[in-house]
Structures are given as C-alpha cells and as structure tokens.
Amino acid sequence: MGFDVLSVLKYLAIAAAGAYILVLALLYVFQERLIFLGDALPPNHRFDFAEPFEEVSIPVPGATLNALHFAQHDPRGLVFFIHGNAGNLDGWGRGAAFYRQVGYDLFIFDYRGYGKSTGRIASEAQLHADVRAAYDAIAPRYGGRPIVVYGRSLGSGLAVRLARDVHPALVVLVTPYTSLEAIARRVYPWAPGALLRYPLRADTLIGEVQSPLLILHGTRDALIPIEESRALAARARAPVELVAVEGAGHNDLQEFPFYRDALARRLHAVAAADRPRTAR
To answer: What residues make up the domain containing 43?
Structure first.
C-alpha cells in the first residue's frame, strides 16, 4: 500500500480545524473566567481601613452587590469608583485616603462574584444594570454636590455608559480602552471578534457623553497602550483633557505624583465650579 500524502494532509487539516473550533468554543463558553479575575471573600469578612467607612448591600436581580462608602463631614462631592477586572474591595479600598485628602467621599462596589458580592456575571447588559443600580443607591444622598464618575481599566467602559446616562460633573477614565473587543484582538488575533460577549464599546458611546472628561494613562502601559486613550479622546465631543503619565505602567499609575496631582487639580476645580450653583 502506497503512502498517500494528500490523504495525510487532509486528515491533518481536519484535525487542525477541529482543534481550532474547540479552542474557539472554549473561549466563548469560559470567557468570563478570562475577563473577570475577581477574588471572592467569605460573607463574614471584616474590612479594615484607616478611613471611616460604611458597608452597603445593593440588591440586584439574583444577587447582592457589596459596596463601601467612605464618607466625611461636609465633603466637596462624591467619587463613584468603578474598578478594574481583578481583586476586590479589600485591595481597591486602599485608595480611599487620597479622596479623603482632597475632600471627596468615595463609593466603590464589587462586581458579582468579587469580594462579598454574590451571584455571577452573565452578560454585558447585566453589568451595566448593576453599575446603574450601585449608582442609584448612593447618588440621591449627594443632591446639590458634584458627583464624579471614575472608571479604571475594565471599569472605564462601564463608566462611559453610565456617564452618558447620568451626566456627572466630571468623568475620569484611567487606563481606558476603545473597546474590550480591541483589547481581545491584540491578545487573541486569531479569534473572531463575534465570539466576544463583552465588547464594551466605549468608542461608540463616548461621543454621546456630555460631561467633561479627564483621561489619565501611563506611557509604559503594556496591557492597554496609551494609543487607546488617544483614540477615545479624539472621539469625544465634550471637553476632554488627556494626561500622559510618563513612565507609568498599567497597575502602578496611582504611585506617580503627576497622576495624583492631575486628578486632585481637576477634583478641586469641579468642587470650586460647583460651589456657586450649590449655594443658591
């Protein structure tokens, strides 16, 4: 029996195609595990922060979101913080001292399955609805004071959608992306974009945001290049300030004084501009 090269190549091609389809199927089914890297905490976990805080439970369909409200006497306003895709409030809450120093209260919550939040993330629509539920749980307490919507990394796309709908005094986007689809194309260039169930298209929504924007991005961010921020800024119709933090990466931005100074300056400016309106 002769060796049939064409038959072998055919079988190899079929096997390769089958393996490719299998990998795509796994990416589709398990993409939440690749995107959302939250760490769960036991229900009886006790947070320990130097700043005073209130723990808040937010009921949402099929779950309860856990949140922290860092409040002080007579704040200038509120920063509503939407965090990145890893960790939980035990780590993200460590930044509360900065906001207290600049005179702002801080409200920050965990996504489903993160920290003490129950349930699991199942769709992009659910994510947006949860963000709005968290916002609605705290915003009414700040009538007459400015609210700043802050989104970091994964949270930046969620912040753009929320800001479009609620018109905050300022939108802060830190290490943002044009879309999660664009980031996925960089990591998995061989996978069709249609597989992604969480495209989070900030680029198609940012032009509808009417609030002023502050975008901060490190020049050495290897995960989300600063070009993503520049592309977002180019699409914005509201006033936008893009601050490039020289030498900063994706996770260490907050350690740079230039970042902290730029953010503090804008938060002070928002409070000062809002004071005549709230005084009436």
So the answer is: 39-279
Active site residue 221: yes
Count how many domains the chain has.
2
Residue 211 known to be catalytic: no
Claim to verify: residue 184 and residue 70 sit in the same structural domain: yes
The answer to whether the CB of 76 falls within 8 A of the CB of 100 is no
Residues 5 and 29 in one domain: yes
Alpha carbon 190 to its chain centroid, in Å, reads 25
The percent of residues above 70 in pLDDT, for the chain, comes to 86
Is 153 marked active-site?
yes
Q: Which of 117, 153, 179, 229 is catalytic?
A: 153
Query: Looking at 110, 221, 229, 274, which residue is catalytic?
Result: 221
pLDDT tens per residue across span 10-46 = 766 776 666 656 555 556 666 787 788 999 999 999 9
Q: How many CB atoms lie within 10 A of CB 100?
A: 17
